[in-house]
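User: I'm putting together a small comparison set for a docking exercise, and I want a reference complex before I start. The sequence is below, and the ligand is zinc ion. Could you produce the 3D structure with the ligand included, as structure tokens?
Assistant: Of course. I'll restate your input first, then give the structure tokens for the complex.
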Amino acid sequence: MSKNLTYQCLNCGEKFIASILSEQEQREYREQKLPYKPVRCPKCGRSDLRQQ
Ligand SMILES: [Zn+2]
């Protein structure tokens, strides 16, 4: 199960909801060597975010 968290972009101020990986999913990603994508702002693409 992934969790939905609200983020605010520190660059443009956009607020959005993104799901993050659970510990179980992170483990699966590591085991399968899948690329882990960090959360990014959907508007400007920056990853300077504050978690709400
Ligand atoms: Zn932004």
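The chain has one helix and three strands. Residues 9, 11-12, 14, 41, 43-44, 46 surround zinc ion (CB under 6 Å).
User: Thanks, that's exactly what I needed.
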